[in-house]
Amino acid sequence: MWPRHVHERFLEILLNGSEVISLFSIECCGPPGSRLLSADGDGQIKCWGMTEHLVNSWECTQSSSLDGDPIIALSWLHNGVKLALHVEKSGSTNFGEKFSRVKFSPSLTLFGGKPMEGWLAVTVSGLVTVSLLKPNGTLLTASESLCRLRGRVALADIAFTSGGNIVVAATDGSSSSPVQFYKVCVSVVNEKCRIDTELLPSLFMRCTTDPVRRDKYPAVTHLKFLTRENSEQVLLCASSQMGSIVECWSLRKEGLPVNNIFQHRSPVVGEKQPMILKWRILSATNDLERVSAVALPKLPISISNTDLKVASDTKFFPGLGLALAFHDGKIQILHRLSLHTMGVFYGSSGSSQRVGEEPAIKRQRAGGPTLHFKALQFSWTSLALVGVDNQGKLHMIRVSPSMGQMLDMNTLLRHLLFLLEYFFFLTILWFFCLSWLAVKVLSTRIVAVKASLCKLSSATAARACDFHAKLLLVAISSTLKSLLRPHVLNTPDKSPGDRLSEICTKNNDTDIDKVMINLKTEEFVLDGPPLQSLQQLIQWVEDFVLYLLANLPNQVSSTWRPLPAVIVAVCCPVSSWYPAWTSCPSTMVS
């Protein structure tokens, strides 16, 4: 079994306008999502833990404070565990060939090489702070300036190197200013935390050197390393009120040029040409709409040219695309190195369009502010996007494994099986992989999330009761549908209960006897004894539905009370075979 594995969870969103959330989980033998880091605009950093291992109950276990200094970047220290995904070995039966461990040093180690837990944060004033969790439960905290001349930092991101160092990228928000990079080394000396910083090569965005675009994009709005464990590739986005441009840069070693006088000198045996590190631009987009959010893939696919060629040859596209959300509500999937468009999603209409196709209907802009995403994150499989819009609503969008490319169904299923093996191997939540195939897998999970969020406020406690009642109805519906079994053992694509629900949904007749006449009874076999044992449960469901319907006039006449979600769920043609809640998230690219 692998050692304790720390993952940054797929949500890293802005909360209440000032709070940054970074969730991680220890993926060894315990349940995922066991700890939570939060930081706010007042400089308060808190570490939360589950109460009695309950995901709906959290308590603050540790905290640190930088009073009045807002936190703009936050990350857990790396624990030294990194896995590589070998796409070309997807057909192998040896899991050691499919998924291998990469040599990677922790950010800080205890006696015996055990990684030390802790977190690192960057503030607006250019301060980096590190908090270390000692085995006895105490907290070691230290702060240091990123450089001698401290200045305002508008954006920052954190990455890690294989040697155990930390790299911080920072910018003051102006595209005419350089993007600075700093190496941060953390150590413990005499029971005190010590931070050493070193300035690394910086870069200027190429759009500022273009005479046409020099003043077109004055602000840097997004700064992200392409992966958490690769500090040599960074994504930058400069914007204005009219549009944005995205650039991808890479740090490379280059030979130091020498004067012509020394070039003709005979080299000494064993002498090497001096090398320097220099940022080189890999690709850039054309003028885009104004970007509101950026999401990067999390699959551990190496981003060297060789590995990308293998992924392209095997047509394994998950993990190769990044997502850009725009202020007009649109989302684009771009190749994370070439920045070529792979797919487009139109949030306003809920339809998707392949690259090169013309839209069937010209979309007109509606009056008022357009619904767009303020924060966007990929799931671990890159088959789902989770975003928060400008109205505070949470959305989940499923992404096709083909990323807009033409692939046959067998190839798609083979890639999904490979991803499912990977997540079973790491014991990560599996339903992110199946979200593209079965939408209903996520429906109850989303209801549970809504119930947990509503419990956080006393004003929405009634809604939490509604969602818990809905989960109960879903469980009862699944139990009743499971009583039906197919007449033959050849299992069809849908279960008898699902086929019966589909028939009842399509039939608008309110007379249940007429609906039953049109059913082919030979397709459905009902187990009598289990149904008889559930007689009291069926009677309870009938009483519950009748109570809700009888209480509906009181709810509608009361203007100050919201309509319960359970009443909305059951105010449809009532049938014991109907799922209590069915919804289909939008499809990104088909």
From TrEMBL:
<keyword id="KW-0804">Transcription</keyword>
<dbReference type="Pfam" id="PF20718">
    <property type="entry name" value="Med16_bridge"/>
</dbReference>
<dbReference type="InterPro" id="IPR048616">
    <property type="entry name" value="MED16_bridge"/>
</dbReference>
<comment type="function">
    <text>Component of the Mediator complex, a coactivator involved in the regulated transcription of nearly all RNA polymerase II-dependent genes. Mediator functions as a bridge to convey information from gene-specific regulatory proteins to the basal RNA polymerase II transcription machinery. Mediator is recruited to promoters by direct interactions with regulatory proteins and serves as a scaffold for the assembly of a functional preinitiation complex with RNA polymerase II and the general transcription factors.</text>
</comment>
<protein>
    <recommendedName>
        <fullName>Mediator of RNA polymerase II transcription subunit 16</fullName>
    </recommendedName>
</protein>
<keyword id="KW-0677">Repeat</keyword>
<keyword id="KW-0805">Transcription regulation</keyword>
<dbReference type="InterPro" id="IPR048338">
    <property type="entry name" value="Mediator_Med16"/>
</dbReference>
<dbReference type="Pfam" id="PF11635">
    <property type="entry name" value="Med16_N"/>
</dbReference>
<feature type="domain" description="Mediator of RNA polymerase II transcription subunit 16 central helical bridge">
    <location>
        <begin position="441"/>
        <end position="558"/>
    </location>
</feature>
<keyword id="KW-0472">Membrane</keyword>
<keyword id="KW-0010">Activator</keyword>
<dbReference type="GO" id="GO:0045893">
    <property type="term" value="P:positive regulation of DNA-templated transcription"/>
</dbReference>
<dbReference type="InterPro" id="IPR021665">
    <property type="entry name" value="Mediator_Med16_N"/>
</dbReference>
<comment type="subunit">
    <text>Component of the Mediator complex.</text>
</comment>
<feature type="domain" description="Mediator complex subunit Med16 N-terminal">
    <location>
        <begin position="63"/>
        <end position="343"/>
    </location>
</feature>
<dbReference type="GO" id="GO:0016592">
    <property type="term" value="C:mediator complex"/>
</dbReference>
<keyword id="KW-0539">Nucleus</keyword>
<keyword id="KW-1133">Transmembrane helix</keyword>
<keyword id="KW-0853">WD repeat</keyword>
<dbReference type="InterPro" id="IPR036322">
    <property type="entry name" value="WD40_repeat_dom_sf"/>
</dbReference>
<feature type="transmembrane region" description="Helical">
    <location>
        <begin position="416"/>
        <end position="439"/>
    </location>
</feature>
<comment type="similarity">
    <text>Belongs to the Mediator complex subunit 16 family.</text>
</comment>
<keyword id="KW-0812">Transmembrane</keyword>
